[in-house]
Amino acid sequence: MSAHRFAWGIACLTLVSSFVVAAPTSVMAQGFKANYDEAAVPQYTLPPLLETVEGNTVDAAHWPARREVLLNLCRDQIYGAWDLPDFQLNAEIVEQGEFLDGKAKRIQWKVTISNEHGSQAIDLLVYLPANASSDQPVPLFLGLNFAGNHCVANDPAIRLPTTWMRADKDTVIENRATDKGRGIQDRRWPVDEIVAGGFGLATAYYGDIAPDDPKHYMEGLPRLNPKLKKNLGPFALDDAYTETEQPTTGGAIAVWSWGLSRLLDVLQKDSRIAANKVIVVGHSRLGKTALWAGATDTRFAITISNNSGCGGAAISRRAFGETVQRINSAFPHWFCDQYRKYNKAEDQCPVDQHSLLALIAPRPLYVTSASEDLWADPHGEFLASQEAGVVYQLLNQTALPDSKFYGFENLGDGKVMYANGWGDGQTESVPKFARVGYHIRKGPHDILSWDWQRFMQFARQQWE
Ligand code: GCU
Question: Does the residue 431 lie in any domain?
Answer without folding.
Answer: no
